[in-house]
């Protein structure tokens, strides 16, 4: 089942965005199960959201040694992660 996953990470935008870019580059090259992906700036840090083929595919990525190594190198604070089942997705022609 497709899921929508949100990740909130507190901290400095410059540092978090550099870490996000590194993580996103890895995901784009190694994770075909990842669908739409957005990173937004918040007053507290960043908010990342995306669709995934399944929660299991997200869990596999998050548990993988390579991904854990990238997270450790980025020295990110503990994220707040939420997972929601997707009822429907719609792709418009708008910005983004």
Give structural notes.
This protein is of the alpha+beta class and about 100 residues long. It has one domain: 2-Layer Sandwich (Alpha-Beta Plaits), CATH 3.30.70.100. It has helices spanning about 15-30, 55-65, 65-75; strands at about 5-10, 35-40, 45-50, 80-85. Strands 2-3-1-4 form a 4-stranded antiparallel β-sheet. Strand 2 and strand 3 form a beta hairpin. The mean pLDDT is about 90.
Provide a concise account of the structure shown.
Helix content is 39%, strand content 31%. The chain has 96 residues and is an alpha+beta fold.
Mean pLDDT: 91
What strand order characterises the main sheet?
2-3-1-4
Q: How many domain regions?
A: 1
Give the end-to-end Cα distance, rounded to a whole number of Å. 25 Å
CATH architecture title: 2-Layer Sandwich
* Helix count from the secondary structure assignment: 3
Sheet with most strands: 4 strands, antiparallel
Low-confidence stretches: none
Structural class: alpha+beta
> What proportion of the residues is helical, as a percent range?
25-40%
CATH topology: Alpha-Beta Plaits
Seen as an oligomer or otherwise, the chain set is single chain
Key features?
four-stranded antiparallel sheet, alpha+beta, 96 residues, 3 helices, globular, Alpha-Beta Plaits, 4 strands
């Amino acid at each position: 089942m497709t899921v929508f996953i949100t990740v909130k990470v507190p901290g400095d935008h410059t540092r978090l965005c550099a870490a996000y870019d590194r993580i996103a580059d890895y995901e784009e090259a190694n994770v075909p199960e990842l669908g739409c992906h957005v990173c937004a700036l918040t007053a507290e840090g960043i908010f990342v959201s995306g669709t995934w083929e399944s929660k299991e595919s997200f869990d596999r990525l998050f548990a993988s040694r390579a991904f854990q190594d990238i997270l450790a190198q980025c020295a990110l604070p503990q994220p707040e992660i939420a997972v929601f089942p997707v009822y429907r997705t719609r792709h418009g022609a708008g910005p983004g």
